[in-house]
Amino acid sequence: MAGLTVAALLANSRQAEALRLTVIDSAPRPSFDPDDDIALRVSAIANGSADILDNIGAWDTAVSTRACPYEHMRVWDGADDSDGASTLKFDADEFAVPQLGFIVENLLIQDAILKVLDKTDVSLRFDTPIAAIDSAGGTYRVQLEDGREMDADLLIGADGARSLVRESAGIDVTRRPYAQTAFVTHLRPQESHGATARQRFLDDGPLGMLPLADGRISVVWSTTHETARQAMAASDEELGSMLTEASDQVLGELVAAGPRGTFPLCAQHARNYVLPRLALIGDAAHAVHPLAGQGANLGLADASTLSTVIEEAIKKGEHPGDRPVLRRYERARKGANATMLHLMTGLNQLFAAGSPTIGELRRAGMRLFNVSGPLRERAVKVALGAGRQ
Ligand SMILES: Cc1cc2nc3c(=O)[nH]c(=O)nc-3n(C[C@H](O)[C@H](O)[C@H](O)COP(=O)(O)OP(=O)(O)OC[C@H]3O[C@@H](n4cnc5c(N)ncnc54)[C@H](O)[C@@H]3O)c2cc1C
Questions:
Q1: How far is it, in rounded angstroms, from Cα 236 to Cα 90?
Q2: Which whole-number Å values give the CA distances from 258 to 13, 103, 107, 288, 371, in the listed order?
Q3: Would the pLDDT of 84 be above 90?
Q4: Which numbered atom of ligand 1 lies nearest the CA of 287?
Q5: How far, CA to CA in Å, does 120 sit from each of 8, 16, 124?
Q6: Distance CA 350, CA 206 (A)
Q7: What are 130-187's pLDDT values in tens digits?
Q8: Distance of CA 310 to the CA centre of its chain
């Protein structure tokens, strides 16, 4: 998502004529068929990210095809009631916006951006794994697995958490594995999801329940590796019972109704985002806990900032790959991403702390947060704005 977005932003920019853009991806070209069932991977897309996708002309396709707007958010402590005084409640009305965000399939977003890219001069190379990267004489040489080579004046590494670009360039990361795996599936709830994104914090990790366009919910259950393994192996009936219990029946009985998958979770941050002629964006630069659904949003904000920096540099006659130019991008994004990363790690730890005293303090803090106007407003502004601060 991050790589396609930066390519589309640059291809549609006023400086597009000065650029020759190539997207290289080891995976096959993503393709979306509306007749297919809702795919396993969905993302909560904040209004700010929708604006970025709108700038490149991809949002209308995504939103009109199969996106579920959510108007309410409820976050509560597993030891409390979903409707208790400590439950964090956010409603679109209160912030004078039609919705707080949208739940959209990752595949649909990629497909919508690709439809835009198809109308540009960007060269798209799917099924093309990169084998190695060398820097020589001020450019990067990309060696493809099929033996071909390409030179780049600027290499943007948008190749995910295990980025080869990052590793080959020798950029270190700070990494902190969570003792959790995310189990993901769709379920049919007995009661209507009411266009509400829900999160229940349990001792083993948060259970996210996101509304889908067809009335089902997408569940992201960050839990112990063992529970995730059991959920994968469970029969549909067993899985329904496990998640009905984990959700405290907030939507009544949950019935298993979709594919399943697990994802390892870790907090990761690259020490640098840029080197001369090279920039990292998206998960290649940072991986955050999915508990607040921010990873893809941060990647889209990176793409937007980087494309603006490149566009402005070309306008001023600067080389977009020069380090002082790329540092403008790094300065604009690294702090904001670090804040989100620490916040997600801290929240996850705070809720996982088993001590009853910490639990009581936590709930008291949540009750306080509920009556603190400015703090709530700030939190929602950040969440609505795709992590841009
Ligand atoms: C369970 C779960 C739920 C989540 N929910 C949300 C959510 O609700 N909202 C949200 O904003 N975020 C969410 N996230 C995070 C979000 O999914 C990621 O942040 C986002 O997908 C990262 O996108 P990206 O484009 O940076 O990287 P990726 O999606 O990892 O893309 C990397 C690309 O690089 C290619 N590539 C890799 N190596 C090579 C190579 N050697 N050669 C060529 N190509 C290569 C890959 O094929 C891939 O296409 C969630 C994450 C998880 C695990």
A1: 32
A2: 40, 16, 16, 25, 39
A3: no
A4: 19
A5: 8, 10, 10
A6: 11
A7: 999 998 777 899 999 999 999 999 999 999 999 999 999 999 999 988 889 999 999 9
A8: 23
Radius of gyration of the chain (CA): 21
Q: What mean pLDDT comes out for the span 271-288?
A: 97
Q: Is the minimum distance from the CB of 23 to ligand 1 under 6 angstroms?
A: no
286-306 pLDDT tens trace: 998 888 788 999 999 999 999
Distance CA 119, CA 61 (A): 15
pLDDT of residue 339: 83
Q: Whose CA is nearest to atom 52 of ligand 1?
A: 290
CA–centroid distance, residue 152 to ligand 1 (Å): 23
Atom number in ligand 1 closest to CA 159: 34
- The answer, as to whether pTM is greater than 0.85, is yes
Distance CA 199, CA 78 (A): 9
Q: What does the pLDDT read at residue 387?
A: 45
276 lines ligand 1 (CB under 6 A): no
- Hey, what are 58's tokens? 């991809």
156 Cα to the center of ligand 1, angstroms:
15
Q: What angle separates helix 2-11 from helix 295-315, to the nearest 10 degrees?
A: 30
Q: Whose CA is nearest to atom 33 of ligand 1?
A: 159
What is the pLDDT averaged over residues 82-91? 86
| Cβ 164 under 6 angstroms from ligand 1 | yes
Give the ligand 1 atom nearest the CA of 128: 43
Q: Bigger pLDDT: 131 or 361? A: 131
Q: Residue 44 forms beta bridges with which residues? A: 103
Largest CA distance in the chain: 63
Can you tell me the distance from the alpha carbon of 64 to that of 331, in angstroms, rounded to the nearest whole number? Answer: 35
Given a contact cutoff of 8 angstroms between Cβ atoms, the answer to whether 5 and 56 are in contact is yes
Which 8-state DSSP code applies to residue 153?
S
Domains of the chain: 2-70+98-175+268-352+373-384 (3.50.50.60)
CA 286, 39, 265 angle in degrees (round to 5)?
30
The tally of CA atoms less than 13 A away on the side-chain side of residue 94 is 13
Tell me the C-alpha distance between 199 and 89, whole Å. Answer: 11
Is ligand 1 within 6 A of the CB of residue 340? no
